[in-house]
Amino acid sequence: MKSTALKVQPVSGALGAEVTGVDVSEELSQTQRDALHEAFLEHNVLFFREQNMTPEQHLRFTRIFGEPDTYPFMVGLPDTPEVIDIVKTESDTVNFGGSWHSDTAYMPQPALGTVLHAIEVPEYGGDTLFANAAAAYDALTDGMKELLDGVIGVFDSDYGYGGSRRKALSNLELMNDRYDEDSESYLSEHPIVRTHPETGRKALYVSKGHTAHLKNMSHEESRPLITYLSEHIVKPEFTCRFRWQKGSIAVWDNRSTQHYALNDYGGMRRHMRRVTMKGDTPR
Ligand code: SIN
User: Fold this and answer.
1) For position 143, which CATH number holds?
2) What is the distance in A from the centroid of ligand 1 to the CA of 216?
3) How many structural domains compose the chain?
4) I want to staple 55 with a disulfide (CB 3.0 to 4.6 A). Which of 83, 208, 213, 260 is the partner?
């Protein structure tokens, strides 16, 4: 495929747009790069079809949106350590990313965004769902917005992973082999309403899987609010759903969205390549 005229077509009222007319394996012009960055900020997640990218081209494409980073729990590809393989084999029963979350929210500076490339997809199933956490914030009442002002969440990398990431990833045949044995656990405090550093828009930043509790509150006291907000973010009207094909790419903004990888393709293989980008301290 060769680049032609770049077009951006929204896929739902909440978030997401499909981009056509661009071959992301090429060295794109500054005009194309600016248009993609602008579309990323406007639509929160961009989708591309029928793209071939080497790991090096994956890194170059990622730099349009942010600086590639390594993922703390997995060893990346030998020459491009920022690129990790996410594989669910035919015999795996659990998947990676199968709960609503924003990537690496437990890090002091969580991932700005993520670029995911489909290498091998199941015949059906394995879609990824996305939710717009800024639209979800906007839809709250003024009373709730006031209540949330200044509330800090405690984000734990082991929370919701059966005790540890090691244990969770050991259930995935190939990802178990690539687990980074030097990795540690992460515990970070972030406001559960964060302001996007590029757009200035506020978004909810809380999830049942990563937010262990609210600061200065017990788990029991925190749970009802965490549960309410996490479920509010993923109401159907704030979401879109992406059906992958071989060569599809999704680029999402972790500062304003959450995503969920569906595990509905038992006995089939799904292989994705992922790069996350260095983020800032949520404020
Ligand atoms: C992830 O959570 O980064 C993986 C998403 C997916 O595999 O669809």
Assistant:
1) 3.60.130.10
2) 32
3) 1
4) 83
